[in-house]
Specification:
The complex is a heterodimer. Chain A is of the alpha/beta class. Chain A is 29% helix and 30% strand. Chain A has 3 domains: 90 residues, no CATH class; 317 residues, no CATH class; 55 residues, no CATH class. Chain A has 14 helices and 20 strands. Chain B has one domain: Rossmann fold (3-Layer(aba) Sandwich). Chain B contains 9 helices and 10 strands. In chain B, strands 6-7-8-3-9-10 form a 6-stranded mixed β-sheet, with helices on both faces. In chain B, a hairpin with a 2-residue loop joins β1 and β2. The chains are: A alpha/beta, B alpha/beta.
């Protein structure tokens, strides 16, 4: 992306009341807090079409008037100070933190995970971009040859405005919830992907995203459209802790799987412990389409995330496999939502959570079957593993089945690591920490095996690190 | 190895759990290359003895010593004992869902015998040979540790670990229970292969003499109420089979 000089930016949007910070450094940064003007300014700065500006403004007003959710972790939500957040920031170097300010424990973890230093710095926001040009270009070229559109969301809007206009907010309207409204008002970055009819993107497209900082924005917006009979596996995030000085991360991800298409969206996120991660993810599956969310949540202060699938077309299928790890002072409120609107649709939810050191893990799930949907099959399994006495796990499963032909299965389990299990593993030469890591990684295995190899290896290492020093 | 230091030496061992004494002065020596059996009723302290040698954190040793080749085991953590050469075949092996057998075996061999022993063609060959000997199918490696295993599969898996880990001291806690006669024969073959003609020793804990017919212990010790009240050759196991434990309990009471 181009950087806009301060002067150019001022010309683009007029003088902002508090002025740009540091115009000399080509930094564009709004003051803290949000208003209709800020929203308009963001849109103007990006030279967006009017319809986008109008959606943003409507979304902003909806956000303002919409009360906080009355579930999840209300006391933690109330602590969010929306006036202390900077809603837009763009510069080649404005996002850079000082490497020395990155906490030792995070740098330590990078080293232990074997993350290359250049990538470590990018993950910590020390460098705005960590790019391996060769990888970036070869992947882009391959995809372009297949007619796949693969852009950051801002460029997508510029280059394919009609396509974006058709699908933007079509899965998640801004009125959906307070945070989808906030995201719609101030979104920046994220990915825009269109896979043409019948095209199969063979490799998981993660390399590009591991190295592109633009996707790690605070209010990223992602839209993936898989046209008829196409398929794509998109991988987002990485297992290394993402150090962010921004306290609020509120993304929206919309997936559209047209008839016979298959989208798999895999996420592993590991936010630093100051971050609120409040994300809305939803896909629509048309006839015989398949949508899978593979969603791993580690870190953050509070995560509220329930990847959803609307099974709109007959014979469509949804899967949500998620894991959550809550450590000290953390609450992972995660789960899944699936709506069976059409007949012969099937869904599967597997949710696994681990809590340790007083952490709290909640499974919150909803599966509905509409009256007209015949012969639906749904299967929900949620397992919790509690590692010590002060930690907590809750399940809030909801099933609303309005068609009696549906076949529903629900299983839930809560287990604790037993001394006998630890002793058994220790008797095979493994220290107590190693034994605990084996149990934890085993518990996550049904999730881990769905990930690309390097992510799986990293996640196992990360869990082993998390178990270090955890023995009281 | 020509040495007089026994593989296992237990002297005057007193131990219990939550202030309840269970072992009251056990004396036992297992020299290199020998297989000894401990027999006794439920509650006599057999499993406790095994757990204490391995270092189970629930038990407290109040007096006495346990040495492996002259090294004091009681000061070591369980994993240090394992690395020093102690192996326990559990009566109730624990399931670890999600942990694959193949991966677990490799990690355990690496932890105990060193990283080099756990990789390459040689390791794979040893693994394959041991599995063939124990009549274990290859698909076993992809299953999760003891998860959904039948009783017999669990016991074979314990012996597979024994064969790969090549301990100095193998303790087999009720390894024969839950096995049919073919299983017992297979397991006995594994034990003999791991101990006979080596520097290692074994302690077989059992209720029954069945397994001892196939292993032929050098010595049989009878444990009653936390004490070894009688030791003898293999014939003692047969005598116990015929006469039960009562006569020994009466003898023990008289001498107490």
């Amino acid at each position: 992306m181009r950087n806009m000089a301060g002067k150019e930016a001022r010309e683009a949007v007029g003088e902002y009341k508090a002025g740009w910070h540091d115009p000399e450094n080509a930094t564009i940064r709004f003051d803290f807090g949000l208003s209709e003007q800020v929203v308009r300014d963001i849109s103007a700065l990006k030279n967006e079409p009017d319809w986008m500006t109008e959606i943003r403004v409507k979304a902003f007003h909806h956000f303002e008037n919409r009360p906080m959710p009355t579930w999840g972790n209300m006391s933690m939500l109330e602590e969010i100070d929306f006036d202390s957040i900077c809603y837009y920031l763009r510069s080649s170097d404005a996002t850079e933190n000082d490497w020395d300010d990155v906490p030792d424990n995070i740098r330590d973890t990078f080293d232990k995970l074997g993350i290359p230093e250049a990538e470590q710095k990018w993950l910590s926001g020390v460098t705005a971009q960590y790019e391996s040009e060769a990888v970036y270009h070869s992947i882009r070229e391959d995809l372009e040859q297949q007619g796949v559109i693969f852009l950051d969301m801002d460029s997508g809007l510029k280059e394919y405005p009609e396509l974006v206009k058709k699908w933007f907010c079509s899965v998640i309207p801004y009125q959906d919830n307070k945070f989808s409204a906030l995201n719609t008002a101030v979104w920046s970055g994220g990915s825009f992907i269109y896979v043409p009819k019948g095209v199969h993107v063979e490799m998981p497209v993660q390399a590009y995203f591991r190295i592109n900082a633009k996707n790690m924005g605070q209010f990223e917006r992602t839209l993936i459209i898989a046209d008829e009979g196409s398929s794509i596996h998109y991988v987002e995030g990485c297992t290394a802790p993402t150090y962010s000085t921004d306290s609020l991360h509120s993304a929206v991800v919309e997936l559209i799987a047209l008839p016979g298409a298959h989208i798999r969206y895999s996420t592993v996120q590991n936010w630093s412990a100051n971050v609120y991660n409040l994300v809305t993810k939803r896909g629509i599956a048309h006839e015989n389409a398949k949508i899978e969310w593979v969603d791993g949540n580690i870190g953050s202060k509070l995560t509220m995330k329930y990847p959803a699938v609307i099974l709109k077309g007959e014979g469509s299928h949804a899967e949500v496999i998620s894991v959550a790890y809550s450590g000290k002072g953390q609450h992972q409120d995660a789960g899944a939502k699936i709506h069976h609107l059409a007949s012969n649709t099937t869904s599967k939810i597997l949710s696994k959570s681990i809590s340790k050191d007083g952490g709290r893990g909640s499974y919150r799930g909803m599966v509905t079957v509409s009256p007209k949907a015949e012969n639906c099959k749904l299967n929900v399994v949620c397992d919790a593993l509690i590692l010590d006495d002060g930690s907590r796990s809750d399940t809030y499963p909801t099933m609303e089945v309005a068609n009696p032909s549906a076949r529903c299965e629900h299983e839930a389990s809560v287990s604790k690591v037993s001394d006998e299990q630890l002793f058994y593993l220790m008797s095979r030469g493994h220290s107590e920490e190693e034994a605990l890591a084996m149990i934890v990684n085993g518990f996550f295995e049904p999730f881990t095996r769905e990930l690309p190899m390097e992510y799986a290896v990293e996640l196992n290492k990360l869990m082993a690190l998390e178990m270090e020093g955890s023995i009281g | 190895m020509a040495t007089d230091i026994p593989v296992l030496e237990i002297s005057n061992l007193h131990a219990g759990i939550d202030d309840t004494p269970i072992l009251r002065g056990i004396e036992l020596e297992v020299p290199a290359g020998e297989i000894h059996a401990i027999m006794g009723r439920n509650g006599s302290g057999k499993t406790t003895t095994a757990n204490i040698i391995m270092g189970h954190p629930d038990f407290e040793v109040t007096d006495g010593g346990v040495e492996l080749n002259g090294e004091n085991l009681l000061e070591m953590e369980p994993w240090e004992r394992a690395r020093a050469g102690v192996f326990l075949s559990f009566q109730y092996p624990q399931a670890v869902p999600g942990l694959q057998v193949g991966n677990f075996l490799r990690k355990s061999v690496a932890a105990i015998r060193g990283e080099d022993e756990a990789k390459g063609a040689e390791f794979r060959k040893r693994l394959k040979d041991a599995m063939t000997e124990l009549d274990i199918d290859r698909s076993f490696l992809g299953r999760y540790v003891n998860d959904g295993f039948s009783g017999g599969e669990k016991k074979r898996f314990e012996i597979l670990q024994l064969m790969l880990l090549q301990p100095k001291l193998a303790i087999l806690d009720e390894t024969d229970s839950g096995l049919d006669i073919d299983g017992i024969r297979t397991v006995a073959k594994g034990i003999n292969a791991a101990i006979r003609g080596t520097d290692s020793g074994a302690l077989i804990i059992t209720h029954y003499s069945r397994i001892l017919e196939h292993v032929q212990p050098d010595k049989v010790h009878v444990l009653i109420k936390g004490r070894i009240v009688k030791s003898g050759g293999p014939e003692l196991a047969l005598e116990l089979e015929e006469r039960g434990y009562e006569w020994l309990e009466k003898e023990a009471e008289k001498s107490a």
